[in-house]
Design a protein that fits this description.
Blueprint: H1 7-16, E1 52-58, E2 61-67, E3 72-77, E4 87-92, E5 99-105, E6 112-114, E7 120-125, E8 130-135, E9 141-146, E10 159-165, E11 168-173, E12 179-184, E13 189-194, E14 201-207, E15 212-217, E16 222-226, E17 231-236, E18 249-252, E19 257-262, E20 268-273, E21 279-284, E22 290-293, E23 298-303, E24 308-313, E25 319-324, E26 328-334, E27 340-346, E28 359-365
Antiparallel strand pairs: 1-28, 2-3, 3-4, 4-5, 6-7, 7-8, 8-9, 10-11, 11-12, 12-13, 14-15, 15-16, 16-17, 18-19, 19-20, 20-21, 22-23, 23-24, 24-25, 26-27, 27-28
Length: about 375
């Protein structure tokens, strides 16, 4: 699921966009990946770890999108939240992480969703309460849509996560009385508002196994939504009397398991059985981003606090591997072939909403 300009916006971003991260943007930084081998005369050189490629890129990096048609990795940037207007969209070579194109945008960019044909992608402009549609080949912003809802202080209600299903975009509104905006992806027209979605709508996904939209919220609920009627059919909870602030979700449709992270109150990942609605497994430890990889039957979890990314066996939940970083792993993305994992890495914040340095992107070749 930390961010921005006015005192109120800075507080909202830091509290609300914990699944993203922040920073600022100059020209693309030089490749910061460096390998060091020990060279003692009596010891053979230590092998270079070629599994992980890391690059310092720029401030305010959040989610990513892989466009197969153009063979490009796009990274959304909000730039700095201190004295910087607008954001960036970086286009990277998915193998080398080299910058191949940049788009300077009027608004700050956070979450991303790509069209199935790879021609366009969408990004949320959280602090302005809207979304943008972007041409994947040129990086040109084609359309904006701002929502009308305002918070009590008059600022726009932040638009957090975005998910594309069956030609419709589902966007979560982060407010005390959250909502989900449903937008026609082709026309960029608002089609429906799903109200009473609980405090802070965070993660959103679709399950082909149940033909339902699932939306997480900061009140520890999973909303089960009928995508044909846009009605909330039921609300799943852990039913254990504990407080939760749910963030991101992933799903294994073959087994009907829904994976939900909580990086704030419970510091855990819960596994729900979609059919019974019950929690069938707890994976303890701080957990922010999460992805399920059906190709390899694996789960990946970013641990912002622990500065690690975990690779788990999706059947036994055993940790197969982990990678440690100097900064904070945030958003995750699995390549279409299931053999590569991308990670955005966030810097710490200073008290004035600036950060201690530019953010990075890591590429992990899965083994």
């Amino acid at each position: 699921m930390k961010s921005l300009f006015s005192a109120r916006k800075a507080a909202v971003a830091v509290a609300v966009i914990a699944t993203f991260g922040l920073t600022a943007c100059q020209a693309p930084a030089k490749n910061a990946a460096a390998s060091h081998a020990s060279t003692a005369t009596t010891v053979a050189p230590k092998p270079v770890n070629t599994q992980v490629t890391q690059r310092v890129l720029g401030d305010g990096l959040y989610e990513m999108a892989y466009l197969s048609e153009s063979k490009a990795l796009y990274v959304a940037s909000a730039q700095s939240f201190k004295d910087v207007n607008g954001g960036m969209l970086y286009r990277l070579d998915p193998t080398t992480l080299k910058t191949t194109a940049e788009t300077h945008t009027d608004l700050k960019n956070f979450a991303m969703a790509a069209d199935s044909d790879g021609s366009v992608f969408y990004t949320t402009n959280s602090l302005d309460g809207g979304i943008s549609k972007v041409d994947a080949k040129t990086g040109k912003v084609l359309q904006h849509l701002n929502f009308n809802e305002k918070a009590k202080d008059g600022d726009p209600i932040p638009a957090r996560e975005i998910f594309l299903h069956n030609g419709l975009l589902y966007i979560g509104g982060v407010s005390d009385n959250g909502m989900i905006w449903v937008v026609d992806a082709k026309t960029m027209k608002l089609k429906k508002r799903i109200a009473n979605a609980g405090k802070w709508v965070t993660g959103i996904i679709y399950s082909s196994a149940t033909d339902k939209i699932y939306a997480a919220n900061g009140g520890g609920e999973i909303l089960v939504i009928n995508p044909h009627t846009y009605k909330i059919a039921k609300r799943l909870t852990p039913a254990d009397g504990k407080a939760y602030l749910f963030l991101n979700m992933a799903e294994d449709p073959a087994t009907g398991r829904l994976f939900v992270t909580d990086d704030s109150k419970a510091k855990t990942t819960l596994v729900f059985d979609e059919r019974s609605g019950k929690v069938i497994k707890r994976i303890e430890g701080d957990a922010l981003g999460i992805k399920f990889n059906p190709t390899r039957n694996e789960i990946y979890i970013s641990q912002r606090e622990s500065k690690k990314v975990l690779q788990l066996d999706a059947t036994t939940y055993a940790v197969k591997n982990s990678w440690s970083f100097e900064t904070h792993p945030n958003s995750l993305l699995v390549s279409p072939d299931g053999q590569t994992l991308y990670v955005s890495l966030k810097q710490d914040f200073n008290k004035d909403s600036s950060t201690k340095g530019p953010d990075s992107v890591a590429r992990i070749a899965l083994k």
